[in-house]
């Protein structure tokens, strides 16, 4: 029992930066969700049950005029990385771990939680993951709630400025690694160029936003994987 409590406390400690970061980013999501027509309750439930920043923001962007099949395909592609993360984390689990622990841990597999978990030495305890989730999930959900509520209280100019924070977050994520990796830098530039072309060429610009995401993801990510495969460490 003492070991379980110790692991949970360690997860709480390591999860503090994740929770604070999620609080800031999900605040912007809450504002955008209200602007897209969702109620405060719908936005909060969406964040609590999904816990996926890229998928949720993309979902808001393709809701208008998109079919459920189109949205499902886009979400599958955007969130497919979580399957790979889960497979990687499964190698750090005790082979005798009960299924219900694995099931609960899978709910909290995000980019940040995966990064912290995979760097932890030794066998990964489910209680460490629960500690991480105990900070991350409330941070993401409460941030969404605050953003959704503030969306109806803050001035329009301030809301417009806060919406720009999302793009600032994306720039902060992609620029540092792109400066060090020329392949990644090229992939980003090609993605931007193709996205621009899809808004200008007559036939391509008529494609809905959801299928644009699907097509561009397959073209750019698939080409990069074939042309510049990541070498496995020996």
Give a topology summary.
Layout: H1 2-35, H2 40-50, H3 53-61, H4 68-78, H5 81-90, H6 99-107, H7 111-119, H8 126-150, H9 156-180, H10 182-200, H11 202-205, H12 209-227
Rg computed from alpha carbons, rounded to a whole number of angstroms: 19 Å
The assigned structural class equals mainly alpha
Strand content: under 5%
**H/E order of the elements?**
HHHHHHHHHHHH
Between the first and last Cα atoms, what is the distance in angstroms?
38 Å
> Rough shape?
globular
Mean pLDDT: 81
* Largest sheet: number of strands, sense, barrel closure: none
- The counted number of beta strands is 0
| Low-confidence blocks of residues | none
Instruction: List the total number of helices.
Output: 12
The portion of residues assigned to helices is: over 70%
Structure summary:
This protein is an all-alpha fold and 234 residues long.
Keywords:
234 residues, mainly alpha, 0% strand, globular
Q: How would you describe the overall organization of this protein?
A:
With 234 residues, the chain is mainly α. 79% of the residues lie in helices and 0% in strands. It has twelve helices and no strands. It has helices at residues 2-35, 40-50, 53-61, 68-78, 81-90, 99-107, 111-119, 126-150, 156-180, 182-200, 202-205, 209-227. The chain is globular, with a radius of gyration of 19 Å. The two termini are 38 Å apart. The model has no long low-confidence stretch (mean pLDDT 81).
């Amino acid at each position: 029992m003492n070991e379980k409590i110790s692991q949970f406390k360690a997860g709480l400690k390591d999860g503090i930066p994740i929770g604070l970061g999620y609080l800031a980013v999900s605040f912007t999501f809450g504002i955008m969700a209200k602007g897209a027509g969702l109620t405060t309750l719908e936005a909060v439930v969406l964040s609590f049950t999904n816990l996926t920043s890229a998928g949720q923001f993309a979902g808001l962007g393709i809701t208008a005029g998109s079919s459920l099949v189109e949205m499902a395909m886009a979400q599958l592609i955007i969130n497919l990385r979580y399957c790979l993360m889960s497979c990687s984390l499964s190698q750090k689990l005790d082979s005798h771990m009960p299924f219900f622990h694995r099931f609960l841990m899978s709910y909290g597999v995000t980019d940040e939680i995966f990064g912290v978990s995979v760097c932890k030495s030794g066998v990964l305890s489910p209680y460490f993951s629960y500690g991480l989730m105990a900070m991350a999930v409330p941070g993401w959900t409460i941030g969404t709630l605050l953003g959704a509520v503030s969306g109806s209280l803050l001035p329009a100019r301030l809301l417009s400025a806060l919406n720009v924070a999302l793009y600032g977050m994306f720039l902060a994520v992609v620029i540092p690694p792109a400066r060090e990796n020329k392949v990644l830098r090229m992939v980003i530039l090609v993605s931007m160029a193709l996205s621009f072309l899809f808004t200008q060429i007559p036939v391509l610009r008529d494609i809905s936003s959801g299928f644009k995401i699907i097509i561009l993801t397959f073209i750019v990510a698939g080409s990069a994987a074939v042309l510049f495969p990541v070498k496995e460490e020996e």
